[in-house]
Each structure stands twice: as structure tokens, then as C-alpha cells.
TrEMBL record:
Species assigned in the record: Lithospermum erythrorhizon (Purple gromwell)
Protein name as catalogued: Pentatricopeptide repeat-containing protein
Pfam family, one: PPR_2
InterPro entries, per database record: PPR_rpt (IPR002885), TPR-like_helical_dom_sf (IPR011990)
PANTHER family linked: OS03G0856100 PROTEIN, TETRATRICOPEPTIDE-LIKE HELICAL DOMAIN SUPERFAMILY
Length: 633
């Protein structure tokens, strides 16, 4: 709406009174322009009626009526009226709200030549901000270079600190952190000193690239330059350290933050709690939550969501449900993402009744489930071997307008395979890519695995070939399933062929421990123990650590095959030594632990090497320091 407080020519005041009685201006037409602005009296560079035009620009820009704006600009141009830069800035912002950054650039390019208004750095920054805010970071750099760097372009202004802040932000978002640092270091040459936002933006970019130490060094540089960091600055660095898992340094940074007079806010607490949850330090995270409440810093949905996710990941879904109840008591409403995380956790822990109760509570409280919640419920029901009930949920999900995704179908197909309903699973898989056109490599792996486990190897081979035909690459699960299916069917040579295909990088998937154990078992059953031992050494070279399943495969074979040169005790002892030689002390100690449980006796030399390495003074100090850090946090 137009502002009546402006001093307007008397002959236009009735128009403003009319407009004032409406909530919004009508769309402007050419006839309206001619009637409203006819035969203006010129007063120097100002013409009678200019203020009305400016008010119209402001009103139509705020309402996003670009058609009327074009008419206003056209009429002003015809009347040879004076264009002001602030009017253009209003339109630039309007283009930003409408997600039309190219229109802003187009108008900026016309300012001087068509509208006789020389842009300043304010206009330039306004357009650059519109582009960056739209997420078009490459386009923002291109615009900056075209205006500030290209020699063929006339300009009467230089970049200021806001310009550099926007450019550095774009570079960091594009992962061009080195170029951002170079731009940052070049600012003084442009007679422009970085401010707190410049430092904070660059710190964030460095931390996201894992260059935490460089980010922290910028904090020291800020102090030298006389810039006082605020809570936001510290939060950026604390977040970087927490994501890296360096909670000790994050804690020290919090102390530094207090020394600088900065208070922890919700973001600080949420970041620290997230870091503690990622490291599995749930009790400390809960303590921090209580500290947050006692310090009168109000937890929000993000805080509670972080705690719930952390508890769920550590297998404490019931505790997470208690946090949800506390959250609701404090007046916060849970969202569908928190519900999906909690329902998934309850199902994984075998607490299906609690999961269903939570689902019903969510519906009763008016939280509309989205595709993620539906998919989690489907997956949970399939884990409980209730695929037909899960299928009903999928039908309900489709009826309310959600299209099943690859995760939904993967869970459902896997569920039917688990109850040996292979035909039903295959029909669902067919519907998935015929009706919904979903073609997922994960689904191929599930289908191949399900068919192989149910003894339908020939069908699995057809799906395997179809996967390649459709351009999908098998993952380690698909390879392992096919290898196991072939070995179980007595086709060990074909299984070995696929294994070597993985091993020699003819595929992007390398064998994991499960794959190796399947091959070890097949080779040992076929009296190819020496071949299996050769592959075991290759597995150790690849950095994989044998587990109890690996040991049991070989120990059973050594017990049954009396002709083998090594005894079980000698084999395990040699395995521990081989891991020690590869500097895998943790793996070697695990083998020693397995030997002791099975009442095997390591050689004195082996015991001395491994136990001596574990109890080195340096390692003891590291362990003690780790304990102190845990206590401190």
C-alpha cells in the first residue's frame, strides 16, 4: 500500500486517498498511466509526480507485480523522468524473492544505458546477493568477474567488504577454499579490510573441508586484528571440531569462548550434544541437556531431535521415547522426522509394540506421516516377518498421495523373501519398475540375495544379467549373494571367478569380510585349504581383520583334516604374528583373546611381542589421556 506521509503534489492526493482504501494496488495499465501522469510540471531535475512513480515502484515491487513494474518503468522512460538507485534496489530484492536472479542481472545491465542511472556498489551487492541467495554460486562468481574484473566494462565503484563476503561465501560453497583464502588475503590490496563476517565465512568453508587447524588459526588472527569474535564465530569452529570427533579441543574452545565474554546459545549446545552423540557419549549429552535447561537456554526441536537420534543410534530407543515425552511436556511438537527415527529404532530393537503405539500417538496428535515415516513402518513390519501387513501400509500410503520409493519397495520385497514368498517378492519387484519406474541397484541386490537364499539360483542369474543390461553395477551385497548361491549349489569355480572379478578391481566393489568367509568355507569344504590360507594372507594384506567366524572355519577344517602340517594352536599363533607384522595390533590382540577363550596357548615370543606392544609407555599415556578427556567432557 502507498504511504500517505510522503509530500506529494496536491493534484495527486485524491489518487492516493483512493489507493489507501484498498489492501493492494490494482494492476497498472497503459491507460491508467496516461491518465495519472499527464503534462507534469518540471522543477529542476525533479518533475511533479516523480514521488508517485517511486511509490508505485515500491508497492508493485513489494507485491511482486512485475508486469505493472514494467509499465511504470516504461512510462517513466517515456516521460524522461529521473530514476533513483534505491528504486532499482527494491526491484532487485523483488526478483530475489521471486527466485528470478537473471532478471535482476538483466535490469542491472540496463541501469546506466537505458535508464540513465549509474549503479554504485549498493546495486552491485544487491544483485550479487540475489544470485548467491538463489544458490547459483558459479553464476555469482561469473557476475562478479564480469563487473569487477573485465576491463571492457565501465564502472564508477569498487568492491566493498560485503562484496568480498558474498564472493568468499560462493567460493566456499563450491569447495574452492584455496581461492577463497587467496581472495581473503587480497582484500587489503583493494583497500578493504575483512570484518567479522568475512572471517566467519572463511572459517566455515575451511572446517567443511576438514581444515580445522587453519580455521582456528583465523580466530587468533582476528584477535591480532582487533576484531572481537562472537558466539556465531565460535559455533562454526566448535561444529567443525565436533564433526571431526575432536571433543577435547571443542571443549577448550568453549572455555575460550567464555573468556571472550561470549555466552553459549542453542546452536552451541545443539552442536556439542550432536558431537557427543556421534561419539556415543549419550550420558554426557543428557547431562549437557540438563545444563542447558538450568542455564535458562531453552532447548528447541533441534536439541531434542539430536538427543533422540543419538539415543536411537546407540540402541537406546526407550530412552529416546522418554526424551520425546519430555519434549512434549515442555510444549514442543515432534515432527515426522523425529518420529521416523524413533519408530525405526524401536523396531530394530525388537520393540514392535512400542513402535506401533508411537505410530498411533503420532496420528492422534495430528502429525501427518510423510513418506519417510510410512517407509520406516513398512521396514519395521517386514523385520517382524509381517510383510502382508506392511503391504497394507503401502496401499494406504499410495491412497493418501505418496509414491513408494526404492527404500519402501526394498523393505517390502526383502520382507516377502524372508518368509519364503519368492513369487510375491518377484511380482512386487516387477511392479516397482513397470508401474512406478523405479530402477534401484539396492533392489537388485535384495532380489539376488533373496533368490539365492531360497535356492532359486537360475532366476538369480537372470536378474544378475538383467542388472548389467540396465546399466546398474552390482554392489558388494549382490556379488556376495551370487558367490554364496553358486558355492552352495556346488559351482565353486564360478563363485571363485566372481570373487576374483571383485578382487582384481574389474568391479567397483571390493570383497568384505563376509565375502572372504564364504570363499574360505567353500574352499575348505572342497579340500582346498592351502588355497584358502593364501587368500587369508591376501585378506590381511588388504587390511581386513579376521573375526571369530573366520577362525572357526579354519579351526574346524584343521581338526577334521589330520594330514595338514599345522595344528589349530600353531595356526592361531601364526595368524596373530601375521597381524602383528602388519602393524595391526588390535587385530593381533583379538586373536590372542580368541585363543585364550578356546584354551590355546600362544608362544612365549608371540605373547611378548603383542602384549609388549599393547603396554608400551606411549600407548599407556595415550589411554590415560583419553580417559581424562572423557572425564573432562
Amino acid at each position: 500500500m502507498l504511504c500517505l506521509s510522503r509530500k506529494l503534489p496536491l493534484k495527486f492526493s485524491p489518487i492516493f486517498l483512493i489507493f489507501h482504501n484498498f489492501s493492494a494496488l490494482p494492476k497498472l495499465s497503459e491507460n491508467m498511466c496516461n491518465k495519472l501522469f499527464k503534462s507534469p510540471q518540471k522543477l529542476g531535475s525533479y518533475k511533479q509526480g516523480d514521488s508517485t512513480y517511486y511509490s508505485l515502484i515500491e508497492t508493485y515491487a513489494n507485491s511482486g507485480d512485475f508486469g505493472s513494474l514494467d509499465l511504470v518503468f516504461s512510462e517513466m522512460k517515456t516521460e524522461k523522468r529521473c530514476f533513483l538507485e534505491k528504486n532499482f534496489i527494491l526491484v532487485f530484492r523483488a526478483y530475489g524473492k521471486a527466485c528470478m536472479p537473471e532478471k535482476a542481472v538483466e535490469l542491472f545491465d540496463k541501469m546506466e544505458d537505458e535508464y540513465d542511472c549509474r549503479p554504485t556498489v549498493k546495486s552491485f551487492n544487491s544483485v550479487l546477493n540475489v544470485i548467491i541467495h538463489a544458490g547459483l554460486f558459479s553464476r555469482g562468481l561469473e557476475f562478479y568477474d564480469s563487473v569487477m574484473v573485465s576491463s571492457g566494462r565501465r564502472r564508477n565503484f569498487t568492491a566493498n567488504v560485503l562484496s568480498f563476503n558474498l564472493v568468499i561465501k560462493a567460493m566456499c560453497k563450491l569447495g574452492m577454499v584455496d581461492r577463497a583464502v587467496e581472495t581473503f588475503r587480497g582484500m587489503p590490496e583493494s583497500r578493504c579490510e575483512p570484518d567479522r563476517f568475512t572471517y566467519c565465512t572463511l572459517m566455515d568453508g575451511l572446517c567443511k573441508e576438514g581444515r580445522i587447524d587453519e580455521g582456528i588459526s583465523l580466530l587468533d588472527e582476528m584477535h591480532i586484528e582487533g576484531l572481537v569474535p562472537n558466539t556465531v564465530t565460535f559455533n562454526v569452529l566448535i561444529n567443525g571440531l565436533c564433526k571431526k570427533g575432536d571433543l577435547a579441543r571443542a571443549s577448550k574452545l568453549v572455555d575460550n569462548m567464555f573468556l571472550k565474554g561470549c555466552e553459549m546459545n542453542e546452536v552451541t549446545y545443539n552442536t556439542l550434544m550432536c558431537g557427543l552423540c556421534l561419539k556415543g557419549k549419550l550420558d554426557k549429552a543428557v547431562s549437557l541437556l540438563h545444563k542447558m535447561v538450568s542455564s535458562k537456554c531453552v532447548p528447541n526441536t533441534v536439541t531434542y531431535g539430536t538427543m533422540i537420534n543419538g539415543l536411537v543410534k546407540c540402541g537406546r530407543a526407550l530412552d529416546a521415547a522418554q526424551v520425546l515425552r519430555e519434549m512434549e511436556v515442555r510444549g514442543y511438537h515432534s515432527n515426522e522426522y523425529i518420529y521416523s527415527s524413533l519408530i525405526r529404532g524401536l523396531f530394530k530393537e525388537g520393540k514392535s509394540e512400542e513402535a506401533f503405539k508411537l505410530w498411533k500417538d503420532m496420528i492422534e496428535k495430528g502429525c501427518i506421516p510423510n513418506i519417510f515415516v510410512y517407509s520406516v513402518l513398512v521396514d519395521g513390519l517386514c523385520r517382524e516377518e509381517k510383510p502382508y501387513e506392511a503391504e497394507q501400509i503401502v496401499t494406504e500410503m499410495i491412497n493418501v498421495g505418496y509414491k513408494p520409493n526404492a527404500y519402501t519397495y526394498s523393505s517390502l520385497i526383502k520382507g516377502f523373501f524372508e518368509v519364503a514368498q519368492c513369487d510375491k517378492a518377484m511380482q512386487l519387484w516387477k511392479d516397482m519398475w513397470e508401474i512406478y519406474e523405479i530402477d534401484s541397484e539396492v533392489c537388485y541386490s535384495i532380489v539376488i540375495s533373496g533368490l539365492c537364499r531360497n535356492g532359486r539360483l537360475e532366476e538369480a542369474k537372470l536378474v544378475w544379467e538383467q542388472m548389467f543390461t540396465r546399466g546398474c553395477k552390482p554392489d558388494v551385497v549382490a556379488y556376495t549373494s551370487m558367490i554364496q548361491g553358486l558355492c552352495n549349489a556346488g559351482s565353486m569355480e564360478q563363485g571363485l571367478k566372481l570373487f576374483h572379478e571383485m578382487l582384481y578391481k574389474l568391479s567397483d566393489s571390493q570383497p568384505d569380510l563376509i565375502t572372504y568367509n564364504i570363499i574360505f568355507s567353500a574352499l575348505c569344504k572342497n579340500d582346498k585349504v592351502l588355497h584358502a590360507i593364501d587368500l587369508l594372507h591376501g585378506m590381511l594384506d588388504a587390511g581386513l581383520q579376521p573375526d571369530i567366524v573366520t577362525c572357526n572355519i579354519f579351526l574346524k577344517t584343521l581338526k577334521e583334516k589330520q594330514y595338514l602340517p599345522q595344528s589349530s594352536n600353531e595356526f592361531m599363533d601364526e595368524l596373530a604374528v601375521q597381524l602383528y607384522k602388519r602393524n595391526n595390533i588390535d587385530g593381533a590382540s583379538e586373536i590372542i583373546a580368541i585363543m585364550l577363550k578356546k584354551l590355546f596357548h600362544p608362544k612365549a615370543s608371540t605373547w611378548q611381542k603383542i602384549v609388549g606392544e599393547i603396554f608400551k609407555v606411549k600407548k599407556i599415556h595415550e589411554a590415560i589421556n583419553k580417559c581424562w578427556k572423557n572425564i573432562f567432557l
